[in-house]
Amino acid sequence: MELRHLRYFLAVAETGHITRAAEQLGIQQPPLSQQLKALETELGVILFERQPRGVALTAAGRALRTDALDIFARLDQTRQRMQRMARGEEGMLSVGFTSSAAAHKLTPEVLRACRRRFPGIALKLSENNAAEVIEQLTAGTLDVALLRAPVGRPEGLRFELLLEEEMVIALPLDHPLLRKRGAPAHAAAQETISLRALAGDAFILVRRPGAPGMYGDLLKVCERLGFTPRVGAEVERMLSNLNLVAAGAGVTVVPASMAGLNPHGVAYRRMEEADQLRAPLTLAYRERDDNPACAALVALTHRIAARHRRQGDR
């Protein structure tokens, strides 16, 4: 049975007349009658009762009409779905991000906009450090990722800078610098502190394999200031930095968009060297990804990032 047989059958069923149906279909009446007879032979049933002024559906014909209409309706749904997928309006996307990238307001804004603009795209979200995110992109288990500084640039991956922001210093609430300056621990961070003033502190840092770019940039700035940071602990995620800072284990630096997290244990201050230490927000994806939904999300992310830049949000 071919779809054209069902189309012929439905045309006759709707018109109740083989000749008129043949005219609508643009074929001759004898071939149409032959196709209908062949369909009845294949199914082993009589579909039409021949009457003086046309034909009428039998019980089997009425049942086939219902099924045929359902088949064509589902085919139309499939066609529309394929067209939506081709336009990037439907499908599935695996989106990864680092904890510090997730803390920037751009990330949830992009995810909300994607769900609102493309309700047919199912998002699978995961969080890892930068090294793991890039491994997953390379392996094809992630489609798109938001991270800070890339951990290497493997062939086949594309990295696009969206925004940059300054880094801020995170201190435990009882840090001597806060008491010495006499400012409330949670004072608005107009007050600045030099990294040099933290030369005697233990630094809590994300492990170098997980965030080598930001780790290395911090070391370079400290070396220019005449000291090498004493590493008190290395963690897998930047959010863990702040938990350890709150516990009094040391100090750290984080992107400004993370300032305010863990407010009952951490105070944030701008650093005098803010122009030397910047936190990028980077979009990463495979260069030859053939998933239209991926291209749609990339374009949407760039539009939102451009709006942030116009508003002066770095």
UniProtKB/TrEMBL annotation:
One GO cellular component term: protein-DNA complex
UniProt GO molecular function: DNA binding; DNA-binding transcription factor activity
Keyword tags: DNA-binding, Transcription, Transcription regulation
UniProt superkingdom: Bacteria
Every HTH lysR-type domain range: 1-58
InterPro entries for the chain: LysR_HTH_N, LysR_subst-bd, WH-like_DNA-bd_sf, WH_DNA-bd_sf
UniProt-listed Pfam families: HTH_1, LysR_substrate
Family indicated by similarity: Belongs to the LysR transcriptional regulatory family.
Protein name as it appears in the record: LysR family transcriptional regulator
Organism of origin: Cupriavidus basilensis
Record lineage: Bacteria, Pseudomonadati, Pseudomonadota, Betaproteobacteria, Burkholderiales
